[in-house]
Structure formats: structure tokens, C-alpha cells
Amino acid sequence: MAEDEIVLYHYAYSPYARRIIWYLALRGIPYIQCNQPPVMPRPDVARLGIGYRRIPILAIGRDIYLDTRLQLPKLEKLDTSAPRLGSASAEHRAIERLLSNLMNDAGIFNWAAALLPANLPLLQDPKFQKDREDFTGAKRTPERDARIQPVALREIASVFHFLEGTLLADGREWVLGTPSPGLADIEAVWPLHWLAGLPGALPKDKFSPEVYPRVYAWIDRFEKCVQEAQSKAGKQGRVKGEEASRLIVGSGYHDEEADVDATDFDAVSLGLARGDEVLVGPTDMGSSGKDVGRLVGLSDEEVVYETRGEDGTVRVHAPRHGFRIRRNGGKL
């Protein structure tokens, strides 16, 4: 593997961060943690010149990657002694991508979040409530829960039913029939694992090992494999924000220098060129967190821009899907 240090900004109970933590554990890739508060502000992240507010944030060397939909493919490209978790088959890669789209883009996380028990201590915290209102653009109330939760249960049940009756129907242990959990399992399991582990989130008469035996057995197998991998790897290092920033800025760039595709739709419509100051941010949840940076790369897969923090400049990579680019001063 390249010698670049991997730094993961996250908080422990983020279901999105678990996707990255699981991947790193299952491939045995060491990393350093920079633990973050679950609510804004996050001075450690701001220290890098980044206004993006979602967790996790992944640094490999001096390159910063936003959104797990980009982070996982970047980690897949790392050359280590452990096999990659993604498939070499085009058909299976399509299944991985479709599972990612289903769980990330079809609203499954939002439906799952709507089912969090209202009596969870964190949900009683006024700071957390206000933060999540800003994050989602909606306020949670008993009246809203009564209206939305039956729909959320139906949507989550449809995912359990889909997996039980298709990909896991033949009794296989892992989604693509692999000898151990792969990328497809990570893409599919995370919101279900999250809900299944929260007492009171799912009604037991509708969601249980008796109702969905294959899905619950798969979740349990996955959990055990991750725990074994983490036990084998041992504890990962931890750093504070100042140390993390200096470590990142003091590293070399991990990715080769990108270029701006002059034929890209946004490049043409906005007249963008390398060096332009741009505004970049997500179009769905957490859209209040935006970055201003100098454009250095633009492709079908990602936009790359430089931000300047307290310790120097870094390159930030955001996926094109789910993110919008504008000239600084414009509106996202």
C-alpha cells in the first residue's frame, strides 16, 4: 500500500461512518481516527478550510474525500496485500452499484432515521434536535412521526423482503456468493444493521429472525466477521484535530494531479476552467455545509478543489452525483 496515512474524521455511531470503518477492518487497512462531535460546529474539519458538514470525512495523504459513495471506490483502488472487496465481474459490479443506489439514493436512510425511537437520549438533546433540523430541513414532532412512520416501516419492510426473497433466497452466506463479506454486503447491510441494533426501532411482530430468517442471519454473520477483523487489527490510533491537520498537510498528495474536462456539462454551462473559485456542496441532506475552493479537477466521477486551512492547502474530492458546482458567488 502507498505510505500515505489514512485519517478518518467520524463519530462512533454514525451509520455512514460504519461503512468506511467496516471496509477498512475487513481489508485490514490501518488508519488514524479523529473523533468528531455529532453536531456542528466541527473546528477540526474547519481547520482544513472545509465547510462541508457530513461525516465521515476521509483523508489519504493530502487528499480529502467527501461522501462514502466516493470514499469506498477510492479505498478499493488502494494496493494492499489483502484482496479488494469489490468484484472483478462487470455484472457483479453493477449489483454493487445498484445496491449503493438503493440504500443511499432511494431514501432508505431517511426512512430508517424516521424510525429512531423518540426516547433515545440523543434525540432529547436540544442541541442535537436543532442540528438535525438544519441538517434535514424538517422538525421531528409526534404528529409528524404518526404520519410518517407507517410509511417508513413499509419502505424498510420492502427492503427486507427484497433481500430475503432474491439475493439471499438460495441460502448463500454473502450477497454475491463470495467466501467472505464483500463490497456488495457493505453496500446493502448498513441501514438494516443500524435499525436491527436499535431496540424499539422496528416492531418485533413485523421484523425478526422468524419473519426474515435469511436477512437477520446475514446481518449477524456480517457483524461477527467485522468484530473478528477488528479484533485481529487491534486498536487504531487517535489524534486531535491540530495533529490530524498537520499530519495531512505535511503529507504528499495521494492522487495524481487531476485536470478539468473542458467538455464537461458544468464546465461548458458555467464557463469553468482550472483555477476558478468555485462553490461546492451536496444537494440533499446537509446542504447548508458548502465549500469554497480553487478548481483543480473535474471529471465524470468527481470535482477536485483546493481549500486553504490553518496549516496549508489540501485537495478536496467530492462526487459529481449528489453534489453541485457553481462559481463562487452563485447559488447552489
TrEMBL record:
> CDD domains given for it?
GST_C_family (cd00299), GST_N_family (cd00570)
Cited Pfam families: DUF7962, GST_N_3
| Superkingdom of origin | Eukaryota
Task: Name the gene.
Answer: g3711
Species of provenance: Epichloe bromicola
Q: What is this protein called?
A: GST C-terminal domain-containing protein
Q: Which residues form the GST C-terminal domain?
A: 89-247
